[in-house]
Amino acid sequence: MPGYLDFVPQQRFQPTLALSPDGHLIAYSSHVSGHYDLWVAPVAGGEPRRVAGFDDRTVRQIAWTPCGERLVFTADENGDEQFRLYLVAADGSGLTEISSGPDCQRVLATSPFDPTGRFLAYTANDRDPAAQDLIIHDLQTGELRRFTPPDGVAFEAVSLSPDGRWLLATGFRSNTDIAIYLTDLSDPDATPVCLTTALGEGVFEPGAWAPDASGFHLLTDHWSEFTAAAFYDLAARSLQAIARPNWDVEVLDAAAGVRIWSVNEGGSSRLHADRDGSPIPLPDIPPGVISALSLAPDASFAVILINSAARPAEIAVVDLARHEFRYLTDTRPPALHVIDPIAPELITYPARDGRDVHALLYRPDGPGPHPVLLFIHGGPESQERPIYARSGLYQHLLHQGIAILAPNFAGSTGYGTAHQKLIYCDWGGIDLDDLDHAVQYLHTLDWTDPNRLAVMGSSYGGFAALSCLARLPYPWAAGVSMCGPSNLLTLAKASPPTWKTFVATVLGDPDTRAEHLLQRSPVTHADNITAPLFVLQGAHDPRVPQAESDQIVARLRERGVQVRYDIYPDEGHGFTNRANELTAYEAISAFLHTHLIATTADHPEPLQVG
């Protein structure tokens, strides 16, 4: 039988793509060398080339200079999210750090350069840890022009206009309250102006400019619960709809009169395009999820990052001129050459108040009854989608005979703003009730064995997994928490200072809702946990500090509950080091096999505490 490593993709990617100005090269971040480094590859096909990288840093965002001779990128150390800025020539020479000041969160604009390549736009909290400032960096003189945000707003630079006059940015308060700010750089006394105040609260995420800088494209939920594609006309100060499906538009790019966008239809991505408003036929693409998209300057093709249940994430070309689809990479692991991967069934199950919860259900081959892993996605404002999940972990578990149910409970994205906001200040409430109904649904299936039930999640999903073990009365066989919060009060107090408004809106203000946050915390109900638990944690995690995992592990070990606790000293929130990632998922696979297959729920083998 293939082992877990036989299911691991040959490489993984950060969700960022950057086409060179001439459209000949695609730049991306891949960990094929063991760390996420900066690579470039010819769009026409050919060998990729490593341009830059570090043993202890992860390349995150990438952009080309307008002349196409150099690239700028951000990188952080061991997942600490303290990003620094670098410039490097396209041939890999002349790597130079251009950051100024202390470690902080520097976020590169999507289109960060003016036409001359002299001025670079990004965001940083170097002045005040609690404030994300907009910065224009003069690469010739080193001078910084800075714009500070209003109270409660976190700025994020998006782009400089094609004429270099305008700086476009977002003002973030929560995932459902994102405004657009515009700054006239030709005015020495300019301040950022909110363009969307009159449109009310909602999501307004700007994207590609019109070539003449007359306006810009954006994604917005202004007209309905779902995110539409639109265009904002600067002169008229008006918003014009481009596409308004009853699903979310998720990525959008535009060039040379062509617009191309992807729609999240029930979790899968569907591409659409138009030229001057008339639809363009597109080649068929494999069913999957598009996480990044870059349209060529002449709009003859687009490069996408696409992931599916049957094939890991790949960089691919959608050729609009030739009506062709082709992969640029092949990351398929050995197992996929000898077995057929299992795609999920998209199902719904009933929850309270007459709601239906969408979920992905993976059924192993064979009649069963099969043990089941309840997998809970992170966020919580995220979505479980049909991808080659967890570096092949899903497919390996399925090959062992373990079924997987992955629900999109209250708080998940993809099903409208109202569904997304249900979880605001109600963590461990309506979401846990939806997970309870997920287990009840499993009891209705004749091919599952609910007495062999495990739960797993990462980040928010880790919190929810711990909540299931502590608060839902089922005979859990095992649980896995990856960087999962155990105490919502200490989590809220320890959150990055720039997240203060976001935390108060989505989780709850720790100063006014302390009692509520404690009551919903897994650590408060830790005495109810009896199932073997596997906890994984990055020591440098800035989002969920190690203290969150320390608390729950200490409480359980005091009672003699079987706990395995793996701390990764060189990781942050999730894995950036490939060796660490493979070690973790191989250990998780063995842990779940031990408690779901090698033993029964009634007679589990002891798990060594360590």
What's the quick description here?
This protein is mainly β and 610 residues long.
Task: Explain what the structure shows.
- With 610 residues, the protein is mainly beta.
- Among the domains are: 87 residues; 217 residues, Rossmann fold.
- Helix content is 15%, strand content 38%.
- The chain is built from nine helices and 36 strands.
- The strands form eight sheets. An eight-stranded mixed β-sheet has the order 29-30-32-31-33-34-35-36, sandwiched between helices. A four-stranded antiparallel β-sheet has the order 1-2-3-4, with no helix packed on it. It has a four-stranded antiparallel β-sheet with strand order 5-6-7-8, with no helix packed on it.
- Strand 17 and strand 18 form a beta hairpin.
- The radius of gyration is 24 Å and the shape is globular.
- The C terminus is likely disordered.
- It comes from Nonomuraea rubra.
- Keywords: Aminopeptidase, Hydrolase, Protease.
